[in-house]
Design a protein that fits this description.
Blueprint: H1 2-20, E1 34-42, E2 48-50, H2 51-61, E3 69-74, E4 78-84, E5 86-87, E6 92-93, E7 97-105, E8 112-116, E9 119-128, E10 133-138, E11 144-149
Antiparallel strand pairs: 1-2, 1-3, 1-11, 3-4, 4-7, 5-6, 7-8, 8-9, 9-10, 10-11
């Protein structure tokens, strides 16, 4: 009888522990998550370049430059940036340059930390235009990159 009481007590204790363990809090997805095209780039002096204007003026002279791109894609763990730029010597686009960073938000500062190997970049990231425009301010260089979300439209049936 004592053996059954011990087993029942252990069973209730185990059930109590399992029931009292709350599930991990599920946070809403971060606004960073999604696909982005660069809108503009500015250095610390504030001199800004609108990407599509730059690309259009180059394509006007050399149509093969239409392959240029500057994009980012973010999941809940990785941010991937992809650059396709021109080779001035051959007038064609170079192979894409892709960087994949892990990311997290610093709880103390609110800055987004992008990590690639030993390289850590901290950005102040803000969102506007119903979270479809994102601005990255590099906390080291002061450079500013503005991104527009790639929004896919569903065709009316």
């Amino acid at each position: 009888m004592k053996n059954i009481t011990v087993k029942i007590t252990l069973l209730f204790f185990t059930l109590f522990l399992l029931a009292s363990c709350s599930e991990e809090e599920v946070l809403p997805p971060d606004n960073l998550i999604g696909d982005w095209n660069v809108y503009s780039i500015a250095d610390s002096s504030g001199s800004s370049v609108i990407w599509e204007e730059l690309k259009a003026s180059l394509v006007e002279f050399i149509p093969t430059y239409s392959c240029m791109e500057f994009t980012a894609s973010a999941t809940d763990r990785i941010v991937t940036t992809r650059y396709v730029i021109i080779d001035e010597n051959t007038s064609v686009c170079k192979n894409p340059v892709v960087f994949a960073y892990t990311w997290e938000i610093d709880d103390e500062t609110g800055y987004y930390k992008f990590v690639l190997g030993n390289n850590v970049i901290e950005y102040l990231v803000t969102f506007s235009n119903s979270n479809n425009r994102m601005t990255w301010v590099d906390q080291t260089s002061g450079g500013v990159t503005v991104w527009d979300r790639v929004v896919t439209s569903v065709a009316a049936e």
